[in-house]
Amino acid sequence: MSTKAYPSIRMRRLRRDAFSRNMVRETSLSAANLIWPVFVIEGERRTQAIASMPGVERVSIDILIERAREAASLGVGAIALFPVIESAKTPFAGEAYNDNGLVPRAVRALKAAVPDIGIITDVALDPYTSHGQDGIMDDTGYLINDETVAVLVKQALTHAKAGVDFVAPSDMMDGRVGAIRQGLDGAGFIHTKIIAYSAKFASAFYGPFRDAVGSAGNLGKSSKETYQLDFANSDEAIRECALDVEEGADMLMVKPGLPYLDILARVRDEFKMPVAVYQVSGEFAMLKAASANGWLDYKKCLMETLICFRRAGASAILTYGAVDAARWMKGES
Known about the structure:
The protein is of the alpha/beta class. The protein has helices at residues 18-23, 61-73, 102-113, 145-162, 176-186, 207-213, 216-219, 235-247, 261-271, 281-292, 298-312, 322-329; strands spanning 34-41, 47-49, 57-60, 78-83, 118-123, 166-169, 193-200, 251-255, 275-278, 316-318. The chain has one domain (29-329): TIM Barrel. 39% of the residues lie in helices and 15% in strands. Helix 2 (61-73) crosses helix 3, helix 8 (235-247) crosses helix 9 (261-271) and helix 9 packs parallel to helix 11 (298-312). The relative contact order is 0.14.
């Protein structure tokens, strides 16, 4: 008979009390890690509910400012702007680089009214194109890479002139990060940062977002598989990230989030640089729908997923629940 004490190591000892659980917790989360995606529309005192994203609204700039003040007071790190272009959509997306367009006006207004919160703008053409794709199409319906990149550079410069902190190219065109960096630096915007959607997968989880920005109807049954990553591929995602690092990205991004924690962890481990993750519209909508049916606790599940993103290596997390989470972390209901 063995004389060894049973068991000699009891892992549960440190789990017994709240103070010791908190003391040895390996992963932390703060409001500063959160980025709040918001949908902006034209007009004044306007809000529009988004049926597929319960609790999320499209808002006009004046209301956005009010909500940005609350987010800043809660310590939310940044706001990511996504425009809803209700007219002026064309095959060539000329409205994307209008200096007086919706996004530049929103940036200027936010910077004047709420200077303490970071502002990120989406650099992509799908809100502006009549076909709903992220670039310029040829006669066969294929997106032309280099012509699209030229427009993206114009768009990024327009946002930089408005005073944005980060431009975030989400289009997945080859070479666009390097071209945007060169364009920004050449125009004197050396401090404008780039957060690159480096590992953006062709995912079915984007549906509610496309409803929100109004591109779903234009896109129809078309897909984005000729430029977004195949969700079966991990090594390809790492190659995309490596190229964006070489081209001058200040931060990388993995999108979607929860189904891609392996990619997130691998990107962080391989590049040892800041990485963001996007808890996309479909992920958020599932939490909300399950909560509305009494199947899940929205608060507990949202906070758990945010910690999981941090545990996997995320420096920043884009989530539609950013303000909710920030309130809870501050002790508000």
